[in-house]
Amino acid sequence: MRELIGAWKQKKTSAKKQNKQLVKKLKQHKGKKLDQLANEQHEEVFEKVDCLECANCCKSIPPLVNKTDIARMAKTLNMSVQAFEKEYLTTDEDGDVVMNQSPCHFLQEDNTCFIYEARPKACRQYPHTDSYEFSQNLHLHAPNSMYCPAVFHILEAVSEKLIVGKGK
């Protein structure tokens, strides 16, 4: 596990441009085959990666929140929606409602989430590599590879198997 995070830390900056180019190439393979391959790689990588060892997403990326998320989180915290919005939310430069700080208010010292069962949909779905919707989220994978070692290694594996042609 620590080896994967260490490798990611060493390679992520130099691979930024490479991952953007990879995502462009992956658009040519968009569809069920790519989604299946990515899902397989997701399963393999997450057998080795424990998100609680990293939690960089919670430390670095304020998640989008929708009205359902807001109501659920407010209820969990025994707050009114208005009080929750005032204390924890902001609108970003794109006009999206997001948590107002990074690291997240609810990230605990042991990298667990204080409101895990009530966490936003964006947190539940992150890093968007485990479903058969990998192709639909291609635009997220290169930026997410800068924050998430799992995404970085999933992209590496997909590239090796699909683009380079190893393991065909």
Compose a concise summary of this entry.
With 168 residues, the chain is mainly α. Helix content is 51%, strand content 4%.
Description:
51% of the residues lie in helices and 4% in strands. By secondary structure, the protein is mainly alpha-helical. A two-stranded antiparallel sheet has the order 1-2. α3 crosses α9 and α5 packs across α6 (81-88). The radius of gyration is 17 Å and the shape is elongated.
How does the SSE layout of this entry go?
Layout (H helix, E strand, L loop, with lengths): L1 H10 L4 H11 L5 H15 L9 H5 L6 H10 L4 H8 E3 L5 E3 L21 H5 L12 H7 L4 H15 L5
Antiparallel strand pairs: 1-2
Helix pairs in contact: 1-9, 2-8, 2-9, 3-9, 5-6
Structural class: mainly alpha
Distance between the termini: 27 Å
Total helices: the number is 9
Compressed to H and E, one letter per element, the order equals HHHHHHEEHHH
- Strand count: 2
Binned strand content: under 5%
Average pLDDT works out at 90
Regions with little confidence, pLDDT below 50 for 5+ residues: none
Radius of gyration over all CA atoms, rounded: 17 Å
Give the fraction of residues assigned to helices.
Answer: 40-55%
The geometry reads as: elongated
User: Main sheet: which strands, in order across?
Assistant: 1-2
Report the major sheet: 2 strands, antiparallel
